[in-house]
Amino acid sequence: MQSAVKDGRRTLVGRSVRWDEEQAKAAYERGYWTHETLADSLQRIAAQEPDRVLVIEGSVRLSAGELYERARTLARVMAAGHHEGSVVSFMLPNWHEAAVIYLAATMAGMVANPILPSLREHDLRFMLKDMSCRMIFIPEQFRNHHYAEMLSHVVEQLASPPQVVVLRGNPHKFTAFDSLFENAPEQALPIVEADAVRMIMYTSGTTGNPKGVMHSHNSIHALIKQIGEHWRVEPGDKFLVASPISHIGGSIYAFECPLLLGATAVLMEHWNPDQAVTLLQSEGCTHFAGATPFLVQTLAAARKQQTRLPSLKLFVCGGASVPASLIREADDYFERAAVTRVYGSTEVPVMTVGAVGDVDHAAETDGQPGIAQVRLAGIENATADSGEVIAKGPQMLVGYVHAEDEASVFDENGFFRTGDLGRWVDQNYLVIVGRAKDIIIRHGENIAPKEIEDLLVNLAEIAEIAIVGLPDPKTGERACAVIVPAGDATPTVSDLADFLLRQGVAKFKFPEQVAIWKALPKNDAGKVLKHKIRQTLLQAEA
Questions:
Q1: Measuring CA to CA, which residue among 348, 353, 338 is closest to residue 295?
Q2: Which end of the chain has less Cβ packing within 10 Å, N or C?
């Protein structure tokens, strides 16, 4: 049933989403939006090709029939205990069970929320409360971190804590994952609305706390259809999924592409370049996407193993700065794979689809737009030939968890303001030249400096602090904390790390470098001039 549209918004399953009737009509007419959800696709494929392998993790090979039966059973458990539209989180490595959870939440008409396993109490507590999460799936332990113990502390601080489900280990006082499949109720599942919110993913903002990005079944469907049109994908292809499934990229390659593009997802629990090259060869992987460090290390490992990865058709590289020389080098080395830069965000994924097969534009630009309209708008920090990148399209977010967060990020025509500065090359190829927003991208992870600054300024030894990103050949960027000390103190990297660890902050957000200054440069209004800080630091390193 079509819900009413008022002031550019619709309410679907209790959530208010942004709605552009003209854009929606065009998306449906072009086939980017559809009335079939991912759950419908799984049911159809399980009936037609029950033995087709969709997900591979180590020795586990999850077929369409197995995934459908396990997801349907878990969906009944979810639907019996929680109402439609509830948030189901999972804080998991790239494990095959995540696909079961994701599809089960979809079948139950609930909202899936992938959370980075590297986050800690500080972020997790905020997110679970912010979206009123009702279930969260965690490992007992992973990479020497005790998640069950962490959740014990977190749920004690929440007025309405979620049900905690533990995978692959002792559940302690929580629910064991395997027990959910015993005596599951015969619960009816809802008819799911394709325009409704199906996923929330948090992204680092520039104003402190992360913001929950909402995507609908249809916005993700449009994204996958675009990938199928531009990235040389054919039925039977295999995606190596080394990026976290809690990122928009990792999640679509792991959960969506196998069902919507006829592919198979090969999951890596944690990144290891030698193992990645082994998997690329042994599984015959055709597609791989990741941030700059993934490409650098894959290329080095392939050379060490003396393989040119003949099965690989495409390597898509995005995130922080991608050197043109790296794209050319990899494109030349791999036997048949095209290598290209792309650009996008959690809010508007894959704004540019690269320049597949055109090595010059693939190396020197971030590619051409796909289904999104991409424009450059005037902004204070832009140069004569650049502007702020703004975009809208059928794959864009349908809003934030809190509508008030949308006020400054959409223009009057509904374009999303990325905060990135870009320029056009040869009319139709975009190059990102800088950022107006204050975000550091390290190893493909977004870090909001203000969030860390707001915590560190509470250290008695710090009078003022500004954190900036500096180019790094291994990680894309590194975080440098420029500190005006209180008195004679000289805080070190270790001092900052110890303090942030006590605050429950994820380690990937810790500054890696400290500079002690007498004062921070500011304008007449007292605003810290980070571009001047960054320029001074870069000159000192030259």
A1: 338
A2: N
Q: Are residues 467 and 341 in the same domain?
A: no
DSSP type of residue 456: H
**Domain range for 490:** 440-541
Q: What is the mean pLDDT of the chain?
A: 93
The reply to whether 408 and 260 lie within a common domain is: yes
Backbone angles phi, psi at 227, to 5 degrees: -60, -40
> Hey, which residues does 15 pair with through a beta bridge?
12
Q: In what order do the strands lie in the sheet with 513-516?
A: 462-472, 476-485, 513-516
Query: Residue 525: which pLDDT band, with cuts at 50, 70 and 90?
Result: low
Count the helix, strand and coil residues of the chain and give each as a percent rounded to the nearest 5: 35, 25, 40
Other CB atoms closer than 10 Å to residue 209's CB: what's the count? 17
pLDDT band at 209 (very low <50, low <70, confident <90, very high): confident
The answer to whether 371 and 344 are in contact (CB under 8 A) is no
Residue ranges in 2-137 assigned as alpha helix (H): 21-29, 38-48, 64-81, 97-107, 121-130
Q: State phi, psi for 219 to the nearest 5 degrees.
A: -65, -35
Q: Is the pLDDT of residue 379 over 70?
A: no
Q: To the nearest 10°, the Cα dihedral for 495, 500, 502, 507? A: -110
Q: Please state the pTM of the whole predicted model.
A: 0.87
